[in-house]
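Journal club prep — side note

Before the paper discussion, L.F. wants everyone to see what a predicted structure for a comparable chain looks like in token form. Sequence:
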Amino acid sequence: KSKIKNKAAKINAQVNEALQGGHIPSDEEYEAKAAAESLEKEVKRNKHIIETSISICLASTKEKIVRNNTKVLMEYFNKSLKFELINPYTDQYRIFLDFIPANSNYNRDFVQLVPMETLAGGVFGASDHLGDSVGAYIGYTVNCNRKVYLYMGRATKLNKSPAMGIYGNLGGGKSFNANLIVVLHVLFGSSALIFDPKSERSHWADKLDFMGDLISIVRLTPNDEDKGKLDPFNLYNDNIDEACDLAFN
């Protein structure tokens, strides 16, 4: 609270100094004043404020690729999302040290005080949009009552990873939703590889015989016959290089 109060006092002093000198405070100063007042209100409502510094690290074997990717990323955030990113050349080494997980904060120049909600809404992938604009209907959102459609085959056409996660409490329908998504995708022409640790789907290939040739099930039980099924060196026991690549990935 004291840090926010001191920051607000400093900004107010800058604005008042400009007014007393016959100058018009800049838009940045007014924006900073409004932000400080907003933070003070957040703290008064007993909400948590977090000291935050965000750094993004891009890597490649070629410098030109890194520079091009940096330019694309900055244009996307600065122009499309109105979220200011900067690339301070003189601070690259210290910012890289900041980027290392569990490391100390070496560069305090970019530390900002933000509410937890703001921080959570600014991370990669944070969105109130679920699913896709095309595909099979799989459910709806509770808060906004929006229908959710999903076709994971479209992701690869857009050069994106066709990945998803299903979260929820015990008995909340996670397994049912996963089953629904798999069956719908197989009906649309996809093939399914299922890792089944609880043997809940071992009967699918037989009972759903109309799609049995499109479903492959890997059972993972404590029995001896299932030991080492996911070991790359068992899968590629005749090709050590392939096994090493798979283990590395």
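L.F.'s comment for the group: The chain has a mean pLDDT of 81. Keep this in mind when we get to the figures.
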